[in-house]
Design goal:
- Helix content is 20%, strand content 26%.
- The strands form 4 sheets. The chain has a 5-stranded mixed β-barrel with strand order 4-9-11-13-12. A two-stranded antiparallel ribbon has the order 1-2. A two-stranded antiparallel ribbon has the order 5-6.
- It contains 5 helices and 15 strands.
């Protein structure tokens, strides 16, 4: 239904949390309470499904909802997606920023998207540690929409995949299939194919981590209100987007005090 929300809570189960703002970007080992080499992946759409679930970035609490357009719940008309799809918490693709490799396009105003290519079906709202492998620059209706490729750190293929070239070698055809999915998935809606920057290449792990760092810093500017203070150079449409997000941030603002930096 339009009102349905998937909510997350803290370890005690008593306090609601934001899957966008309260979950750390760097995965922390629950046994040692120490950072790991992995990042946290929040699954929105499980593999082999088509309902378009997403974090509600403009709602207080940022719970997961099924996207809708004009009151109609949205699904992928192309069919089921073949990888787990979601995002990296504490990241934000700044709509005021034009990355030099993004064909002159601004950020899409959302957390960074992730295509998790492991064998397990991850449930909507589940958080998993992942290895970052690479990234694709999609241009979606004039906006830069980065797609990170990652694999669950506990997947049977994880020991063999450490960078994007490993995916091409060990799982041939996977990257081409991901690109073609994103190129064509809007065609059944009557829209043209999507296009890509960087000559349609998947960039390596190092490049991907640099994009993630940028988007983590942008998130910090958003959540602290710094971005609002920098908006004078932007048009009214972009100002409206940023202000709406800034005012609908944490259930508990104390979580922003976490100063942990991604240790890539």
């Amino acid at each position: 239904t339009l009102e349905y929300r998937i909510k997350a809570s803290d370890k005690t189960g008593s306090k609601p949390i934001s899957l966008w703002h309260d979950v750390t970007l760097v995965h922390v080992d629950p046994a040692t309470d120490r950072p790991t080499p992995y990042l946290n992946f929040v699954c929105e759409i499980p593999k082999f499904s088509r309902k378009k679930y997403e974090i509600a970035t403009d709602e207080v609490g940022n719970f997961i909802k099924q996207d809708e357009k004009k009151g109609v719940l949205r699904e992928f008309k192309k069919g089921d997606i073949f990888f787990n799809y979601g995002c990296l918490p504490r990241t934000w693709e700044d709509p005021t920023f034009v990355h030099p490799d993004a064909e002159g396009c601004r950020g899409d105003n959302d957390p960074v998207d992730v295509c998790e290519i492991g064998s397990k079906i991850v449930k909507t709202g589940e958080i998993r540690p992942v290895k970052i492998l690479g990234i694709l620059c999609m241009i979606d209706e004039g906006e830069a929409d980065w797609k990170v490729v990652a694999i669950d750190a506990e997947d049977k293929w994880a020991p063999f995949l450490n960078d994007i070239d490993d995916v091409a070698k060990q799982l041939p055809g996977t990257l081409d299939a991901i690109r073609e999915w994103f190129r064509t998935y809007k065609i059944p809606d009557g829209k043209p194919p999507n296009v890509f920057g960087l000559d349609e290449k998947f960039m390596d792990k190092h490049y991907a981590l640099e994009i993630i760092k940028e988007c983590n810093h942008a998130w910090k500017d958003l959540i602290t209100g710094e971005k609002e203070r920098q908006l004078e150079q932007c048009n009214d449409e972009v100002k409206g987007l940023v202000r709406r997000l800034s005012k609908s941030n944490l259930v508990d603002l104390s979580a922003v005090e976490d100063d942990e930096q991604p240790s890539f």
